[in-house]
Amino acid sequence: MVVAVTRPTQGIVLAFLGAVLLRLALGDGYLRYVTAWMRWPLIASGVLLLLLAIGPVLAGRGQDGRQPDGDPHAGDDGHGHGHDHGAHGVPASAWLILLPGLVLFTIYPPELGSYLAERRANQAAAAAPGDLQPLQDGGVVAIPVQEFVWRAQSGGTTLVERDVELVGFVTHEEDAWFVTRLTLGCCAADALAFRVEVRDADRPPRDQWVSVVGRYVEGSGSSMDSAPVMAASEVTPVDKPRQTYE
Taking a C-beta distance cutoff of 8 angstroms, is the pair 174, 117 a contact? Predict the structure, then answer.
């Protein structure tokens, strides 16, 4: 016997999924799964699901499974009356679609962190931030971790003898530790990790967010086979930023 989901229930499921999308997109929850530019498409999708839910909810059938005209076999050709009329609906397995929605509605899974980063670190060339330009004049220059990696892979000449600040979370490898950031192409499934080895400083615990000020070690990180190295002059624990991905 196939247990069916009635049309009103289908509408409720659509409305629930729309509400989940809106809850994620109107807060910061969506940033755990996709890049920031996808906020408005998610809002539009949530609103669309809510609108699509209106029809099934309002056009529901009675509990006896009859059509709106009162004839349970309206449009039937008179054959096969012995089958289960519930099979005309959506199979009960449709309820399974609610499970991930319930999880996302009630619990935000944590952002990707050191577990993934230690397995995907520097697996690709860092994306060029545009034409290679010297760092701005002045004291300490704050730059993204991925840009630091890219400048090192490009020869590192723009980093030499410059005080640079990197902000990221801590990852470990044997006796070394790294300041690390994850980057997303569109969503968490394609995340890549970029990291810079930190020397001359005590190793913080995994996933601790830190600000590291120091100087590039010349010649390091010229290829994807090894991470660039920074000789640290200052390491400061910091709060996790709102947007953890670069």
Answer: no
Q: How far apart are CA 28 and CA 243, in angstroms?
A: 8
Residue 197 sits in which domain range?
Answer: 116-237
Determine, yes or no, domain membership for 35.
Answer: yes
How far is the first Cα of the chain from the last one, in angstroms, to the nearest whole number? 51
- Interatomic CA distance for residues 202 and 196, integer angstroms: 15
Q: Which of 81, 109, 137 is the last residue of a domain?
A: 109
Residue 244 maps to a domain: no
Number of domains in the chain: 2
Q: What is the mean pLDDT of each run of 10 residues along the chain (246 residues)?
A: 60 78 75 73 84 74 46 48 47 65 63 70 61 83 93 91 96 93 74 91 95 96 88 96 81
CB atoms within 10 A of CB 194: 30
Could you tell me the CATH number of the domain that includes residue 209? 2.40.50
Taking alpha carbons only, the member of 179, 184, 175, 185 closest to residue 148 is: 179
**pTM of this structure:** 0.64
**Same-domain status, 99 and 154:** no
Which of 227, 214, 220 has its CA nearest to residue 171? Answer: 227
